[in-house]
Amino acid sequence: MTASHAPARSAALVIARTVVDGVRHLLPEHAPLLDTRATEFVASVLEHDGRDSAFGIAAGADAFRQMGVAEYAAGKGLDRLSRAFHSAGRCALPVLASLSRQPGAGPALMDTGVEALLRCVDVLIRLSTAAYRAAHTPSMAELRRDLLQEILSGRPPAKWAGLAAEAGWVPPAKVVAIAAEPGAVRASFGPEVLADLTGEYPHLLVPDDIEIGRVLAGTRAAGGPAVAPADAVTSLRWARRTLELVRREVIEDGPLVRWSDHLTTHWLFADEVLTTALVRRSLAPIAGLPSTERAKLAETLDAMLSARGGAPEIANNLGVHPQTVRNRLRRLRVLFGDRLDDPKERLDLRIALRADLLAPDPGPARPATPIRAA
Predict the structure, then answer these.
(1) In CATH, what number is assigned to the domain containing residue 68?
(2) Residue that finishes a domain, picked among 135, 163, 195
(3) What pLDDT does 186 receive?
(4) Among 114, 122, 113, 107, which Cα is nearest to 11's?
(5) 149 and 107 in one domain?
(6) 326 C-beta neighbours (distance < 10 Å), count
(7) Does residue 365 sit within a domain?
(8) SS3 of 160, please?
(9) Same-domain check for residues 306 and 249
(10) Number of structural domains in the chain
(11) Distance (Å, whole) CA 143 – CA 159
C-alpha cells in the first residue's frame, strides 16, 4: 500500500487523537509527554502509512522515545508499552469504521486504514523499544550470560563473535559444558569460563584444557564431551543427561562425574524403552523367581558368560564352592536351554544383565534434569 492509499490528513488526525488518548488512559504516568506534537507525529505516521524513514527524527517521536527511557528507569519491562500501543490502536478501530461510512470517504478507507494503523503501532513500539535498550548498559556479567545463551542456542560462531569480543571471551578450540546442582559452583572464576548460575539448572562452559574441578565447590556436577564451541549445546545435553543418571543412582555420585567415564551406561540408557524390553525378553526365564534365587542365578549367569573356563573358575570369581556353581549352571541350562549356546543370545544376555544391574531400585520419583539447554 502506497502513501496515497493511507488516510487523508483530516482523518489521520482524528484517528491519531484517539490513539494518543488511549495511551494516556492506559499509561497515565506518561500523559505529560503526549502533547500536540505527539498527536501530529502519529497522524503523520498514519498519513504516510508508516513507511517514511524520517519519522524517527520528527519532533513528536521524542515522546515515545522518552516513554521507553522512563519505563527502563522505573525498572519495568517493554511489554507494558507494547500492550498499551496495541490496545490504543484497537480503540481507534471504531473511529476508523465511522469515518469510512462518511460521504466521500471511499470504500477502501477501512481496509487501508487498518493497515496504516497496524504499521503505526509498530512504529511506536520500535521507537520506545530502541530507546529502552539504549538506556540499558549491560554489565560484563550480563554480557557473558547473554553470550553463553547465544552459544547454547546453536547459532553459528559468526552470529556471536561480536558479542564474544565485547564480553572479553576468546573462544578456545574445544570446550566442555558442565551441568551442576544449585550451589555447586564457586562464585568467581577466570575470564575463560562462561557461566549461568542464576537458574534452577546452573551450567558452565569451560575450555577443555583447564582443571575443571577448580571451578566447582566439591558438590554434585557432571561434565559433557569436549567439542568445538559451535557444538556446545551437544556437550551440555550430555552433561545434563549424566547428572540426571547420577540423581537416579544409575551412575555413582562424585564431585565431578565425567560423561566419558560412563559411555556404556549412556548407551544402555539412551533408549530406556528399548533397553527395558531387551531385559524383559532376555531375562524372562528367571523373572518370576524369588528375588534371592533370581539374584544368585543372574550373578552366576553373568560370570558364566564372561568366563573362559568352567565351574572352578566361575566359583573362584564368585567366591563360592564349585559344586554350588555346578548346581546353578544346571538350573540355568534348564531355564534358558539352547540360548546359552547361541552367540547372539549370549550377547543379548550380557547386555541385559548389565542394564539390569545398573537399573536403580524403584523409589520416590525424582525431578528429571531437562536434556536440552534454555
Answers:
(1) 1.10.490
(2) 135
(3) 61
(4) 113
(5) no
(6) 15
(7) no
(8) helix
(9) no
(10) 3
(11) 15
Residues 10 and 131 in one domain: yes
Per DSSP, 276 falls in state: H
Q: Are residues 120 and 162 in the same domain?
A: no
Q: Is there a single domain that holds both residue 35 and residue 103?
A: yes
pLDDT at 139: 80
Q: Which three cell numbers stand for residue 194?
A: 562462561
Residues 148 and 131 in one domain: no
Per DSSP, helices labelled H in 307-342 are: 311-318, 322-336
Residues 227 and 319 occupy one common structural domain: no
Cell 550480563 belongs to: 142
CA torsion angle for 315, 321, 326, 332 (degrees, to 10)? -70
The partner residues of 185 in beta bridges, in order of sequence, read: 216
Domain boundary among 268, 302, 335: 268
Q: 203-207 and 194-196 as β-strands: parallel, antiparallel, unpaired?
A: antiparallel
- Would you say residue 369 lies in a domain? no
For the chain, how many residues are written? Answer: 374
Reading the chain (374 residues) residue by residue, the pLDDT tens digits are 344 445 677 888 999 999 999 999 999 999 999 999 999 999 989 887 655 544 555 778 999 999 999 998 898 888 899 999 999 999 999 988 888 888 766 666 777 888 889 999 999 999 999 898 888 777 888 889 889 999 998 889 998 999 999 899 999 999 999 998 876 556 567 889 998 887 788 899 999 888 776 666 666 889 999 999 999 999 999 999 999 999 988 888 887 899 999 998 888 888 888 888 988 999 999 999 998 999 999 999 999 988 877 888 889 889 999 999 899 999 999 999 999 989 899 989 999 998 888 876 544 333 444 433 33
Question: What one-character DSSP code corresponds to residue 1?
Answer: -
29 found inside a domain: yes
| CA–CA separation, 313 and 322 (whole Å) | 8
Identify the bridge partners of residue 241 per DSSP, sorted by sequence position: none
Report CA-CA distances (Å) from 240 to 53, 144, 290: 48, 21, 36
Residue 115 lies in a domain: yes
Give every CB contact of residue 196 below 8 A, 6+ residues apart in sequence: 145, 148, 149, 202, 203, 204
Q: CA 211, CA 209: separation in Å to the nearest integer?
A: 7
What is the spatial distance between Cα 172 and Cα 170, in angstroms, rounded to a whole number?
6
215 shares a domain with 104: no
Domain of residue 166, residue span: 141-268
Compute how many other C-beta atoms are within 10 angstroms of the C-beta atom of residue 124: 30
